[in-house]
C-alpha cells in the first residue's frame, strides 16, 4: 500500500448516477428500501439457519454463508451510494476507494466459489444421493468455505498489487457512484492497456468461466433427473431451479460489466445498482419463498421473537 504515498491525488469525485432530481428521488427511495429489506432478509436467513437444528445441513450451511456475502456486498456499495445521491460533491478518499475495490472483489470472488459449491452440493444430492452425507460432510463444507475466502482474497490481491503502484497525478473524476478497477485504472498517468487487459481477464473471464462450470453442472444434473425421475429428485430439482435463478442474477451483470465490449456508462451504473441493491434482496426472497423448510423455520423464529418481546 506504500504506492499510494506517491500519488498526488488524495481523493476522487464521483459523477453519480444522474442529475435529474426526480430520478434521484426515485433511486433514493428504491435503494434505501431494498437495502434495508436485503439486510433484514439475509440477517433473518442467517439467524434461522444458525438457530434451527433442522437446518444444520450442508445446503443451508452454504446458504447462510451466501447470505453473509450478500450482506457484505450491500454494505460495501449501497450506504455510500445512498448517502451521496443528493450531494452536489460526491467524494471518496484515495484509501477509501482502494478499500472499496478490495472488498468488492474479495466478496465477489467468495460468492462465485460459494455458488459453485452450492451447485456441487445439488449435484451430489441428485446424482449420488446414497453418498451425499459421506461426501458433503462437515469437513468438506468447511474446506469449501475456506477455499472460497482464499480464492476471493487472491482474486482481489492479484489486481490490487498492481493498481496501488499506479501514479495518479491529475484527473480524479470517476463517472460512477463507486470505485472499481476499470474506471479507476483509466485515471492513472501512465499507459494502462496491459493492466486493463489483465483486469478483464481476471474479473471478466473468471466470471464467465465460473458461469460456464455452473451451466455444465446443471446439464449433468438435468440429465440425471431425466433418467431417474422420482419424488426425491423432484424436490432436489426444485432447489436447483432456485439456485439457477440466483446464479443468473449474480453473473448476468458481472459478465456484462467486465466483458461486454460495447457497454455504456449509464447501463453499467444501473446494472451495478441492480447487483448491489436488488440482487441481495431477491436472493433472500427466492430462497425463502421457494423453500418450505425455510419458511417453516422462519415462522418459528419470528414467533419466538414476538413472544420474547411481549415477555420483556
Secondary-structure blueprint of this entry?
Elements: E1 11-14, H1 21-51, H2 58-84, E2 90-93, H3 94-127, H4 132-135, H5 138-163, E3 173-174, H6 181-186, H7 193-227, H8 231-259, H9 265-289, H10 292-311
Parallel strand pairs: 1-3
Antiparallel strand pairs: 1-2
Helix pairs in contact: 1-2, 1-9, 1-10, 2-3, 2-9, 3-5, 3-7, 3-8, 5-7, 7-8, 8-9
Features of this protein?
3-stranded mixed β-sheet; 312 residues; mainly alpha; 10 helices; single chain; disordered N terminus; globular
Notes on the protein architecture:
The chain has helices spanning 21-51, 58-84, 94-127, 132-135, 138-163, 181-186, 193-227, 231-259, 265-289, 292-311; strands spanning 11-14, 90-93, 173-174. Residues 1-5 have low confidence and may be disordered. It is built from ten helices and three strands, in the order βααβαααβααααα. The termini are far apart.
Would you tell me the overall average pLDDT? 82
* Cα shape: globular
* Strand arrangement, major sheet: 2-1-3
Q: Helix/strand/pairing class, anyone?
A: mainly alpha
What proportion of the residues is helical, as a percent range?
over 70%
Q: Which H/E pattern describes the elements?
A: EHHEHHHEHHHHH
Rg from Cα: 21 Å
What is the CA-CA span between the terminal residues? Answer: 49 Å
Low-confidence stretches: 1-5
